[in-house]
Amino acid sequence: MARRAKGEGSIFLNRASGRWTAYITVNGQRRYRTGKAKGDVAKKLAALKADSNSPQRTPTVAQFAQALLEGELKEQHKYGHWITNEIYWRTRLAPSTLGDMPLNTVRTMHIQHFIDVQKPLKGKGKLSPTTVRRIGALVSLVFSKAKSPRYGLIEHNPCDGVEYPQIRKTVKRTLTPA
Hints:
This protein is α+β, with helices and mostly antiparallel strands and 178 residues long. The chain has helices at residues 38-53, 61-70, 72-76, 79-93, 108-116, 129-147, and strands at 10-14, 19-26, 29-35.
């Protein structure tokens, strides 16, 4: 019997149960199917392959960030940290063009542009570099979670090459006796 190519899955006889078993890896997770006959299992494997090849709708950055903030991050982070991230998501990420893009189409240049155009919500001027870095940290967290084996929505984190504004170090001056 010829060896299957990579990504085609496997079919084997489970000696313990006497049933035929097939599996295929889809999005980093193995999917198993069993049956009495090898032909039945081969049909089930073909159906799994067809399902895995069909285009799945990838969530947008804003949808995935909202799901993370309402679930996993709410449990893992302290309330103050979570509420800050939620405000950044609601005021910065969700209304932006980056928030409307599907996760798998975002590139480093999109995130760099998003970071470069951050401005105060009211008035003139610009945001402090620390605030821009915190917003960038939220975006990076969203993409690192999307890359993780748990979700497996993207293959690499596009935030890896982003340049953030430098934080100006202020020299503290004290009065000296004359």
